Records
---
Amino acid sequence: MSRLHPWAAAGLAVGLGLLGLGLESGRSPLHAATLCPTDLAPAIDQILNTQPAQRAQWGILVAPLEGGEPLYALDAERFFIPASNVKLLVTAAALTHFGADHQVSTTVYAEPSEGETVLRVVGQGDPSLNDASLQFLAQQVQRQVPNGIDRLIVDDTYFGGDAINPNWEWEDLQAGYGPPVNSLMLNLNEMRLDLIPQQVGHPLGILFAIPGDGVEWQIQNFSTTVPAGEAPERTWIVQDGQRQILQIHGQLQAGGEPLETAIAVPNPTQRFLRQFEGALQQTGVTVRQMEIASEPGQARGAAIAQLPSPPFINLITEANTHSENLYAEALLHHIGASLARPQTSTLEAGLAGSEPILATLGVNPDSIALADGSGLARKNLATPSAFVATLQGMHRSPNAAAFRQSLAIAGRTGTLRNRFRDTPVQGRLSAKTGALSGVAALSGYLDPPNHPPLVVSILVNHFDQAVREIRPSMDEIVLRLADLQPCP
């Protein structure tokens, strides 16, 4: 149990109730009516001295939006694992490099060929492609080649290098939130499935959201259905992508609701090809032969079908508001693709190329060391000052409004929709959250009601508690910042 604040010592029941309600339904009892800047340091120190994780390492920087001396700093130049706050760096770099309106396309070309109808699908790394996208492309193709396709080639070479990030841990690569990044991504490169309780003692039922996803898998079902209320519910899935084996483990209680889960697609290019063939068949177009290109096509004919991606600001918003890993990773690869030589790793090129872009915003390259675009890798390192510099730099840029609008809003949208509700911070904090085991982060823009705007970065590492035990202290700091007002 979390250690109680001193004000709660006299009344355990009342104290716990206030602690639980203070951050989402009202103001915390620690709050005074107002807070002068000179009193900010003692106020934050009091929160840190009473927070539950004694071994946690905190990095905090609070500074004026327009620049100037920080209002509060704690280990602001120290490296921390930033989790999904990395997305702030990557999206800022992508928006600066490409602009808000930049788009890429998924295109179907009719290749020159003697006596055959040969089509090549060329991907450019659009992470938003889904089943509706394939149907749209297939309908365009049907109007051009209603008599069928002799050879269908998918060209997945726009992004170079390995689609799987070498810095991710094994369990992350199994999960839907750790998908491979390639040039022809579909349905977030994840396979969604429901695990369904059956009669007691029977294995769980398995239902794929897209029936075609389960066709090539050998299912080894080691799960079971247990009596209601007699055992905790826990499930996990292990996949062997090379041998196409899917193992289902764990248990759910009889009579309960199905559990929706997701795993990463091990062979995204093959999956795209299979699903696109199905979309073509639905329009009446037969495909006689299919193949995956090993090298980019040199002689392309006319484009007979094309689907532009959403503007990059839409992709950036998905990455920041909803913390969508695949979108952030795709943006990093896009930076790399614009800078890399053909067939080199767009991941490595994106990592190397992001630093000089961020430097133009005022970010010290020595304050960041990136290993991916999403923050899933624990090898990512950054300082609180790097995030404050990024936020201030984007505020000075022509993309200031677009970048800020891409962030989650406290109490309203994205990963902050359930935080700071019914507090003075609701609607006044635009920020990026972050969480891994032992890691919590929050960085963004804050507009206190009675004080000039601020930028804030709070990074916490090396705690043993669940992240939900740390967030109240982080949120308490933000709430105290909202109390600031200029004082004589």
---
Amino acid sequence: MANVVVRHLRTTLVAETSAGRLLVLTSLLGSIGLGLYQAGSAVYFVHVIGFSGVQVGSGLSAAGLAGLALGIPIGRLADRLGPREVTVAVCVLKAIPLAVFPLAGHYWVFLLTAVVFGVADAGWNVANEAVIAGTMSGSHRVRLSAQLRSIYNIGMTAGALLAGLAVAANVPAAYFGLFWGYAVTTLITAALYLRLPHVPGTGAVHASVHRLAALSDLPYLAVAQVSGLALLSETVLEIGLPLWVVTQTTAPRWLVPGLLAVNTVLVVIFQARAARGAETIPGAVRTLQISFVALIAMCVLAAVSAAVPVWAAVLVLVASVVALTGGEMGSSAARWCMRFSFAPEGGQGQYGAVFRLGQIGPRVIGPVVVTALLGQCHAMGWLALAVVFGLGLVAGPAAARWAQRTRIEKAAIS
């Protein structure tokens, strides 16, 4: 049995090529650093520096929006100059605000530092995906993306556990270690990227894709927005379910971290397997549909959990997280396939940045919508979320067919 588990984990976590293995290593290092930062930074800013929760939240929101806005020119730069070089540059850029954060005693310094960090972090995500597209081909891109996500969950968990030690110590030096530790892992990651194969850029003069091509590609934007609806599952897991468990069910409070642990373990073990069959557009569409069905089932189960006794509530909530995780893993694989497949090879950076615009609704508006629906409408709020996922179930295949048809037409014309 142990040998079977080891073989499965090796297949799940070990990439097939040397470039893939190097990218897995960079993902592990980066996610450990991110886990350090995310688990302790807000506590430091509020309880040590003295900022209000609103100030910290507004600064991080500004950083996220700046990253989305400037991700497109950074993606375009990756297409022109080569994604490896741009990824290294944004890694170095990201280390600078991480070094400055502990010293940001004034709000405006914090805000400016957060915006620089947000832009660099978004730029890294965009350029890194272009690196994957340039070093991998076809189904290998989806397979590697799945492995990277599994590794990401391992690293985030390890980083969060280490951050817990700093929070428990509750002294400035320990908090400094969180930021500077992330800065160090980021710089090591930059050095590792230099060992990847060079992916030639298109050059400023001979660029094969117009600088506004992705923004004017309505079918691609539609695919990004519709498939992005599944990202609401992350907000539900991190905010919606914890609040629901505590305020609306008889389940014990200790179940909240348990549900998060179930999600993390399932993603680590099964994300690569969930990506099988989603390497082609037809397969990705089927996987996306199944994922939305799973998310609808999650909403129904979560709603039922408020009307049953303690033991049943625990079982139903665990089942709802299993369904949520299945939908999360499947939709991720489907999005990876469509993000890479519908983008022209000379514009993977620019198109990848535009595809990330599909995250605006779920990640910027999603927390407000989820908390309002579940807090004010209770069980009916879950049914409203099920309707949102139902829209994705219906509109997802239509958007994918539209995008595929326009690619075929363009190929025929050229």
---
Amino acid sequence: MAKKKQVKFTEGKILNNLVRLAWPIILANILQTAYQLIDTFWLGRIGADAVAAVSISFPILFLILSLGAGLTLAGTVIVSQYKGAEDQLQVNYSSSQTVFVIFFISVLLAVVGYFSAAPLMKLIGAGPEILEDSVSYFQVSSWGFIFLFMFYVFQSLMRGIGNVLLPMYVVLATVFLNLVLDPLFIFGYGPIPGYGVAGAAVASIVTQGLSALVGLIILFRGKMGISISFSQMKFDSPWTRRMFNIGIPSSMEMSTRAAGMTVLIMLVTSFGSEVVAAYGIGSRILSLIVVPALGFAMATTTLVGQNIGAGKIKRAELIGNLSAKIAFFGLTAVGLVLFAFAEPVTAFFVPDDPEVIRDGSIFIKIMAPSFGLLGVQQVLNGVFNGAGFTKASLLISVFALWMIRFPTAFVLSNNTGLGFEGIWWAFPISNLLAAIVAFIYYKMGYWKLRTIRNRHRK
């Protein structure tokens, strides 16, 4: 049965291959985002402070997660290129090494996250009304890093060989479980006590632990295109160096985005808990809508990686062209729909707070029309990543967030009559400029020349 699921992504119609890879990734990402949305829905029943406590800790959580998550992308790139070259031994060895390295990193980050929770929450400006809840949520969530990273590895390796349906099924099952466990641990029932805000993190850890266990069992059994083994999980300095060369720029890119979110949340907190809650709801809605861009970017990474591994550079470029068009027109349409329904969508999460509903819907309306531009940037980053040129994605993210978004947000919110809405306007402005830079860099073709040079060196 495993052989029937194997598809050669180095031949056939590009659109068919792109859609075949992208839709399960998009759905899996939507389902993973549903973890946060489900948390927000139930915590909103406690009140705006509960939503704010989670919202303020989320950027720091994402910052720590990104340090290891970028390395899982390196696993995708390396495995996809070996898959395109039809080298199964290296596919298996690279997968085993990825699991080995990421496990130790996840343990380290879990320990650091737990013991640094209180000073981190104080650093980003958590007020006394949300400090205790934000610290407890962060501490519990930190222990979930180990499980979350192990599932990320499974997901990334499966994507590398083009098997995207299996991770989607696992995520689907755990999200349904989280839907039940969230209210159970937040509010309690019978002998199970309610943990309040921390209960949302407890529910997530249980489901993440199950998904990691399932993923590792599949990889060790070796019947779905990848077979890992303990015998190959020994420190390999040259391989680890290669993984870090590809993965560290990706980690830094994700960290840069997370750090940008953290700095922005520090800016947002200066306007009070109501604005923090509006930002939290708006950013979660936006993260759900941007999932298609990330899905197409990940599918593009796999397709470009496999075709480069097979020596089909021109086909890799055609993949990038088509993926960018789909992302731009598709997400622009989605953004316009979201613009029209911004208020009822915001009210769904905090139904009894008119001020939060107003501020959150304004944030969505300002940001939504620029989704197509964000899609172009993400997809072109996917091309660069598939070629192993992750430094390009890093440089574009640094430009978008640190040279454009944060300075613009600070200036508009503190030196104009816009107030906190100036922060909202920084999003579409940075999306526009980042898309232009990414497109120009893509058309310059350095990523292709670099790939050809690397092949000649081999």
